[in-house]
Each structure stands twice: as C-alpha cells, then as structure tokens.
Amino acid sequence: MERTEGEIATKNGNLEESSGTKDGSISGYESLHHLLSVNLKPHLYKEVSRLLIGLNCGKPLELIALPESAKALSSKHDFDLQAFSFDADKELLREPRVVRVGLIQNSVALPTTAPLLDQKRAIFQKLKPIIDSAGASGVNILCLQEAWMMPFAFCTREKRWCEFAEPVDGESTQFLQEYARKYNMVIISPILERDVNHGETLWNTAIIIGNRGNIIGKHRKNHIPRVGDFNESTYYMEGNTGHPVFETAYGKIAVNICYGRHHPLNWLAFGLNGAEIVFNPSATVGELSEPMWPIEARNAAIANSYFVGSINRVGTEVFPNPFTSGDGKPQHADFGHFYGSSHFSAPDASCTPSLSRYKDGLLISDMDLNLCRQLKDKWGFRMTARYELYADMLARYMKPDFEPQVISDPLLHKKSL
Ligand SMILES: NC(=O)NCCC(=O)O
Question: Is 320 helix (H, G, I), strand (E, B) or coil?
C-alpha cells in the first residue's frame, strides 16, 4: 500500500499520523528499529540498517543466544531483553579480548508520593530480576542509569528529594555489592551522593564496584545542565574527580554522566586516559534531546576509538507539586517522557539497535576490545590530532583578554563605488 508522507502503519496495521503515542511508543512500536523492521521489505530494511546502524567488520551485528533462565526472567517481569555481538579482526599477536557488557534502563516503581524509603526499596525489588538476568547471561560489566535509586526529581527544585542522597558506601552500593560478588561482575552504580566528610555536599556520582564486591572508585558528573526542567544545579555542583579511567578485571572503563555527552572534550579526556568503554548513564526526555541521542555517543565512540554504552531511563515521573522553569511553559508536574532507547556504539561506527522507548530493559553486548586499537591503527585519529594547536587555543581562550582569531574581508565595510 502506498503511504503518504507523515503516515506509518501502526502495529495493528492501521495508518496513523507519525506523531508518536502517549504510552511512549512510536505509534505502537517499541523502537525505531522495530518500526522499520516491521514496515520495510526485508531487502530494504537490510539497506536501511546498513546505513542507519552500520556494519561491524563488514557485516551486520550478530545476535547472541542467551540462556533460557535469562529469557524467562524477561518474560515474567516484562522487560525488554536484547543481545548482540561486536567482532574485531583476528590478530596474529594478540588473543581476542571479548567482554560481555550490560546496560539496564528502568522506570521508577512507585508514585513519587510514596514514602521515600518505599520508593527506593521498590526500585531495588524491580531491578533484582533484571540484574539476575544479566548474571545468568554471564555479563561481566553492568551499568545502571543515572540516579537509578530515585525518581529524577531535580526538575522540582524542592529540597526534600535530597534525602535520597547516600554516601558512596551506602545502602544502594551495599545492595549492588552482593550482586557483584554473586556474579563476579563489575557494576557501575550512578547515584545521588552525600559527601559527609565535606559538609554534606551533594554530588551526582557513579560508583565503580569491582567484580569482588569492592569499591574501586567513583566519578562525579562534570557538567551540570541548566536547560529546560533540568534544574540539577539547585542540588549539586560540577564534579571534582577529573576524568578517571578505572582498570577493572574486564577492561578500562569510564563514566561520562548524562549532560557530559554534549561536550566533546569531556569524551576526549576519558579517551586520553585510555578508556576502552565509556558509559553514559542518563536521564533525558524526548522533546529536549531525542534527535541528539543516537548521534552524540556514536560520534564519541568513533572520534575516541572506544565503545560507548548509552542508558536512558523510561517512563513519565509525576511530582506532587507543579513547577515552572522560567521558559514560558505553563506550570506542570512532570519532566515529560524519558524515552529509554539505550544502546551501544562501537569505534568502527556500528551500533546496536536501541532498547524499547517505554519498557524496562536489559541490553547485552559482547565486545572484542581489540577493536579499539585496530581502529586507532586504521584511522590514526590520535596520531593526526593537533593537540598542541588545541592546547594553545584553549590556553589563549581562557585568558580574560582573549580575542577571537577572525580575519575580516577588508572589502566588507567599504562602500561600493
Ligand atoms: N540528566 C541530565 O543531565 N539531563 C540533561 C538533559 C540532556 O542532556 O539531555
């Protein structure tokens, strides 16, 4: 059937205006890839996929078969479960270095009006089967979403939500440490941190739990948004931990928390410190950032020759009191829809399809970390970068008397004869 512009078939076959739907789906489809795979003829879908998500080592990404126990948990608890494999070329002098990496996206479990402790514990309960599914699948490194142990209440500017903040070794960390030990898994736990030793300062922090349940270290969010309803600067300050790379049993990893993904130099710094996988745990909404989402992480993976794991929460979180953010919008009580769509990007420009736009989910991917060096050898971005030029430019830019290097056409302001 011919379709007019702006129309797509919904899941039940009806045609509908392509404006998305209230449940967070894209006209009834869980993701863009799902919509395309159902609506395009197989040979067209293959071509669209090749251009949209690229090829890895010259071929489409392969699916991984997961154990029945992992799949049973996803059916029983209704979370999206997808698994792919990124290859690298065979090398003569190095063995492949394949690690299995997982990303979890989820909605909150209780309304924001429930007692705070109940809200947190209900999220723990919700995550248990998803983490068990990752464990049953042999995931080596698992990353949760930004501030996973609470609703993303920073739109409200109300200080009562500060009560969710925990020290690095608090309840949420202890909850995950058990899983790290049980499944011999590195877990990245992005939380709202309370730094008791520094006057109860709050931070937006990712804690790196080693595969033996030990705390390897932490990274604090470098860039705090001041856009739309993301009133996070009311709660915490720009991080003071630099760009650490954590050498774990399964590779060198780093965390670029949410809004840091809009800053190419932030991505660069993790690369300069030798990261092989950079996680981007996020909380962002469709209206604000969805067109940027598939581009920024992928570009970072390409430019820095590392893998990126992008995670976004799902659902709409409604708060008890309406708020405004000085942008002319009428008062409202929610951020809008957190659109999930978690995915992996690889240094060779390939990426996985995204998880659901509205359901909880676990995305798993095998990745041969040898691909990072192979891409460095192939494209030479590190070698061809002109760091001395950039360093000089930045040093000059930082001075109060900086003047932009602009050469004006001398004829620009001359009156024509
Ligand atoms: N959590 C957060 O930093 N969100 C900011 C919005 C965005 O970067 O899309």
Answer: strand
Cα separations in angstroms, 208 against 44, 180, 252, 350: 42, 10, 12, 27
pLDDT tens digits, residue range 327-337? 999 999 999 99
Residue 391: strand, helix, or coil:
helix
Report the separation in Å between the CA atom of 285 and the middle of ligand 1, taken as the mean of its atom positions.
Answer: 8
* Residue (of 369, 411, 416, 357) closest to 87 by Cα position: 369
Helices (H), ranges, 203-333: 264-272, 286-289, 293-304
Local structure of 236: helix, strand or coil:
coil
What ipTM was predicted for this assembly? 0.99
* Average pLDDT over all residues of the chain: 94
Indicate if 57 belongs to the active site.
no
Distance, CA of 280 to CA of 239 (rounded, Å): 15
Please say if the pLDDT value at position 9 is more than 80. no
Strands annotated E in 69-166: 80-86, 98-105, 141-143
Q: Work out the average pLDDT over 288-293.
A: 96
Of 120, 143, 155, 221, the active-site residue reads: 221
Contact 151, 119 (CB under 8 A): yes
What is each CA distance from 39 to 81, 136, 141, in whole angstroms?
Answer: 22, 33, 35
Q: How far is the CA of 412 from the centre of ligand 1 (A)?
A: 41
Give the span between the Cα atoms of 369 and 346, in whole angstroms: 10
Quick check: 199 pLDDT over 60? Answer: yes
Which residue reads 């076959």 in tokens? 13
In short, whether 276's Cβ falls inside 6 Å of ligand 1 is no
Residue-wise pLDDT tens digits, 358-370: 999 999 999 999 9
Please report, for residues 268, 391, 400, the alpha-carbon distance to residue 396 in angstroms, rounded to integers and kept in the order given: 20, 9, 9
pLDDT exceeds cutoff 80 at 18: no
Write down the pTM of the prediction. Answer: 0.95
Residues in contact with 265: Cβ distance below 8 Å, sequence separation at least 6, in sequence order: none
Structural contact between residues 286 and 339, judged by C-beta atoms closer than 8 angstroms = yes
